[in-house]
Amino acid sequence: MDARSRGRVRRDRVRSLLDELAAGRLSVEAALQQLDDAPVDELPFATLDRHRALRQGFPEVVFGQGKTPEQVRGITERLAAHGDGFLVTRAEPAVLDTLRAAFPAVEVNAVARTALLRGATPVPRGTRAVAVVTAGTSDLPVAEEACVTLDATGHPVLRVTDVGVAGLHRILAKRETLHDAAVVIVVAGMDGALPSVVGGLVRCPVIAVPTSVGYGAAFGGLAPLLTMLNSCAAGVTVCNIDNGFGAAVAAARILDG
Q1: Start-to-end Cα distance in the chain
Q2: What is the pLDDT of residue 7?
Q3: Hey, is 18 helix, strand or coil?
Q4: In whole angstroms, what is the distance from residue 110 CA to residue 116 CA?
Q5: CATH label, 130-256, candidates 3.30.1360.200, 3.30.70.1150, 3.30.70.360, 3.40.50.1970
Q6: Which regions in the chain score pLDDT beneath 70?
């Protein structure tokens, strides 16, 4: 199945529901119940978007930062109850510990600060990979957030780590890997120059992610953000500072068309 067809299948949840019904794996009553479900699920502290998977092809993702472990558990329990699983980003250690205890099958990535519970129906896997490139090891938390998100949406990942412009030969040695990618996400802090270099080497879309890594004049990621916005390489687009999740979703939508 190519990426475009796979994207249509994932977005068209109603068709999947009818397939389950036709195959006898779902009763008429259960199918009607799913179709009759309200578009939102209300909790005292959150209003969950139940129909996001119908509209966009992937369920609502939980941004963990600023939420208590109890709030995140309440939200994820509701999401998991509908069979779609969940993805939590920017989760503090206490939140990750709570999710480990509540969901034995949850996949925790401590570097990315993510927790992924896969849905009852496996996400179709694509064949076109996304390369996630980091300028330095300190950029890994943002890059791993992108990698986990890509995995959750069914896209293979090629990791290229610690190949910043201070040692230009390192990225040049990875040209074959870059050429095998359908999209490249470049994560860099400090001077933020790596996306321009990569953009000059490949013909596929390049998504640049500035990170808040760097000394004082990096201004918490503002300096690399401006560098990336001013890139002279064609085809480079830029996400917000530290937004690995957003870059991954953009890459997935490019591939799913």
Answers
A1: 14
A2: 39
A3: helix
A4: 11
A5: 3.40.50.1970
A6: 1-14, 32-58
